[in-house]
Every structure is written in structure tokens, then in C-alpha cells.
Amino acid sequence: AAGVIQSPRHLIKEKRETATLKCYPIPRHDTVYWYQQGPGQDPQFLISFYEKMQSDKGSIPDRFSAQQFSDYHSELNMSSLELGDSALYFCASSPRTGGVEQFFGPGTRLTVL
Amino acid sequence: GQQVMQIPQYQHVQEGEDFTTYCNSSTTLSNIQWYKQRPGGHPVFLIQLVKSGEVKKQKRLTFQFGEAKKNSSLHITATQTTDVGTYFCTGKLIFGQGTTLQVKP
Q1: CB distance from A48 to chain B under 8 Å?
Q2: Which of B4, B23, B42 to mutate to test the interface with A (most CBs of A within 10 A)?
Q3: A101–B50 CB contact, under 8 Å
Q4: pLDDT digits 0-9 by tens, B62-87
Q5: Pairing of the two strands A108-112 and A10-13
Q6: Taking all residues of chain A, what is their mean pLDDT, rounded to a whole number?
């Protein structure tokens, strides 16, 4: 069965650089969620989209932005990277918004040097 | 804002022993979900509870949703080494801190 695809799987950036993470949800899933997980921590909800519109906003820094495109894939854009942004970034998708099982992708490990 | 607390943070058990993790929300939840994350892996959905006082079972796993819909528990009977991982509860997109289970064979 198709799963959530995230690219790249690993990314190394310098401080103050920008990064773009991509997420391709499971076919026919219209809701995408972004999470940030630091080492030994729980996933922190950043932002979600339903039918290409922002549906919920969590602890996403102002330096980050995200969008969902017409083909339902989503991109998380991160600017002015800081050392503290080093983390695992998960994308998850679900077939509809609100209290439904989220299918997580394998994550993108971002390292900021 | 809403907080979701889980206890214990870590639990080491001998294979065959039982294990329970508890989840408490600062606000009433419409539903609660449980996920398991293996070391180096991604969270995987286990179950969703919706009704007050609901109890659901999946083989050796028993999930319970409190009457006030503010707390939940996950109980594993006779743990196996395959149960190793971190168990998270989540309500309204807020994850608990997780309980990491280690099982000694």
C-alpha cells in the first residue's frame, strides 16, 4: 500500500540558510500535518492543511511557512535556520480533518550546523 | 493552552510482565488517539477512542477512555520484546510526552 513520502530524508544546512521539505500524502488523503520532533521528545504540531487551506496552526515559528498544492502535496519552507531547528520533521496525512488516524511519513532529519 | 501529560516517562519491564501508561489532558477531549513509535521510526496509529468510558482491546493491548474524557490508559498484558518503543497519546493534535517501554528478555 502507498505510504506518505517525504523528501529529502536527510538534509544538512548551515545557520541562516533556507530549507524546503516536501511531503506527498497517501493518494486521496486531503489533509496534511507537519510535526517537529527533537531528540527524545514528543512530536510538536506545527501546522495542517485541509483541501489546500490552512486548517490548524500550532507552534510553527514565523521563520517557517507551509502550503498545500493542488495535487495535495505540501512543502514546509524554513528560513534563517537556527541550530535549534535541528530535528526530525514528520509529515502525516489523513483522509479528512478532525480526529482521524494520521499516517506518518518516514520523516526528514534536518541538521543545522 | 491545552496540555497532555503522560506517566511514566520510562518503564523497564521483564518480558512477560504487564505494562500501563497513563495519559491526562488539561481539557476535555472529543477523542483520543494512541500511537507507537519504534526507535528510529515514525509514529504508527494504534487506536482512537471516542466515547466516554470506552474500552477497546487489540490482542494484548487494552485502551480505556475516562468517563470525563480527560484521561486515558494503555495496558499491555504479558509484554514481549516486540512491544519496545515509545507510546504516545494525542488529543487535538497535542501529543503527550510519551512513555518509553524497554522489555528485558
Answers
A1: yes
A2: B42
A3: no
A4: 999 999 999 999 999 999 999 999 99
A5: parallel
A6: 94
